[in-house]
Amino acid sequence: MCGIVGYIGTHKARPILINGLLKLEYRGYDSAGISTIENGKISCLKNKGRVKELENMNGVSSLEGTVGIAHTRWATHGKPSSTNAHPHLDNSKTFSVVHNGIIENYNELRNFLTSAGYKFFSETDTEVIPNLVHYYYTKEDENTPDKFAHAVRKATLDLKGSYAIEVLCSLEPDKIIVARKDSPLVIGINENEKYIASDIPAILEYTNNIYILNDGDLAKLTKNNIVFYDTSFNVINKSPEIISWDAKAADKNGYDDFMLKEIYEQPTAIRETIGTRLVSGKKCDFSDLNISKEYLSGISNIYIVACGTAMHAGLAVKPIFERLISVPVTVDIASEFRYRDPLIDEKTLIICISQSGETADTLAALKNAKSMGCKTIAVSNVIGSSITREADFTIYTHAGPEIAVASTKAYTSQITILSLLAIHFAEVLELDENEMLQNLKDEILELPSKASIALENTDLIKSFAKKIYKEKDLFFIGRGTDYAAAMEASLKLKEISYIHSDAYQSGELKHGPIALIEDNVTVIGIITDRRLVEKSVSNLQEVITRGAKTLIVTNQNLDKKIFPNIVTIPQVHPLLSPVISIIPLQLLSYYVSKEKGLDVDKPRNLAKSVTVE
Ligand code: AGP
């Protein structure tokens, strides 16, 4: 959703800020803005539309300051417009603020400030922040050291909701104050230069030496120094982390789109995610988690909680957990889980999956589960993200930065790591399934090369995309883990091609959905489980008889006369098959979107990281 960038140092801030905003475009936004300080005066330029339009706006090129903040806004309170875009200034134009998150009590604060004489010009919740900072600043004693930082701290204590903020002050032009609660914020450091961002990729080309702020942290940045404070304004010590992502990983690297690049990165992402967790002939290594046999034998159920694609990864791994450790697994959508009373207690293990680690609903679900005494495991791709900080245990996927809004390599990496975790649990529990576990481990080690094979022949996918790109509705069907992959394939198509599609369990068609099948409707079937081939083929024949045209993704020998469009993928254990069967269908969505001339990486209305409910 919204993106934040900031810079204080010895170079002009403007190009660094614009570059950072361009790197954050993937988060999804509708307007952009920038503030810098020149000769003790704040300049602020903002506009509805793309960062490129901001860059070309009158006046932007003359911003010379070496201190600045910038923002891409995804509208929540008030329509996309230049007035509602960030930064927002206080009435005296002394303070400039950018903000990610939602201030839930902004009406109350607005009324308070209005009665104190402040005026408001935008429809946003954010505009209360610079005015509140001004209110407290003017109340501070003339001689208070750190008057600016104090005023920001006091203002944040009045805010309810979520925020990551950057604040400039024209009276203390050599500083930026930042603070966070429930919205991510990081600070990168070089000698004489500090970089701020909501997401690491925005500043990775300048430094990989990065502080990750915790909830409640406030930081005062000058070009040479950072001081961190807690909510009571006590100084706290923090250490930076070295981020191992390569800056190039956040570039397109010759591909037309990030999504295509990320689809093709899957063999590497899966290999990196397996890493040293699995070495041929050995047990899976999750010793960092330190989960005991005693704890595992005591759990009565597992809840996998997540949103969107991450939730689909949960559906894909439910069978492997249930098969290997005989514990019932419920896969739940985080936004539902958090508002009902799930049957969980201290015997429930909660696994939250989130590529970004910042999804508001998943984070809230995790906090709810913890408060009910459950142990929690976070599976995330982003080091230090909020979900990883909140969970009892964290497991990272090593997919590298995923920039395209439509998640691809994160999904296959999540299934890979969770399958390894299921095996690890079975090994810890000593359930005497050695042959099956060994077989699965061998198969997991082969996933990277099988993913490469699945990426090889794309001609049929491309030609089928040309056939279907004008369609309004289509169907994905499968059984077992093929149904889980069908759900994800359907979401991918919706997200980037805006074609409506549904996924059904093949056996469920007859109970209603088959009424929708008529001449020329497209049905895409996935068949990877040898035991279910005949059943799945019968279901597909039923739709063909009713006029459907089909595309089949399979590793079985099917009759070409019945199924003219077959995408063959490598043989893979049915419990792991979504890792491979999704690949041609990710490509299909990609090519359909390209045929329609759409923006693959930044589909309409969507944001990469959904940090509000
Ligand atoms: C994936 O293509 C989607 N953009 C979306 O469903 C995403 O998976 C979901 O918002 C969850 O994100 P997370 O993994 O960062 O929590």
Please explain how this structure is put together.
It is a single chain. The chain is of the alpha/beta class and 613 residues long. It contains 18 helices and 25 strands. The strands form four sheets. An eight-stranded antiparallel beta sheet has the order 3-2-4-1-10-9-11-15. α7 runs parallel beside α13 and α14 runs parallel beside α18. The protein is globular. The termini are close together. The mean pLDDT is 94. The site of 2-deoxy-2-amino glucitol-6-phosphate (AGP) has 16 residues, from α9. 2-deoxy-2-amino glucitol-6-phosphate binds next to α9.
Short description:
By secondary structure, this protein is of the alpha/beta class.
Which terms would index this structure?
single chain; 613 residues; alpha/beta; eight-stranded antiparallel β-sheet; seven-stranded antiparallel β-sheet; 21% strand; globular; binds 2-deoxy-2-amino glucitol-6-phosphate
* Binned strand content: 15-25%
- Write down the overall geometry: globular
Largest sheet: 8 strands, antiparallel
Order of neighbouring strands in the sheet with most strands: 3-2-4-1-10-9-11-15
- Count of helices? 18
* Structural class based on helices, strands and sheet pairing: alpha/beta
Q: What's the gyration radius in Å?
A: 26 Å
Q: State the end-to-end CA separation.
A: 11 Å
Bound molecules: 2-deoxy-2-amino glucitol-6-phosphate
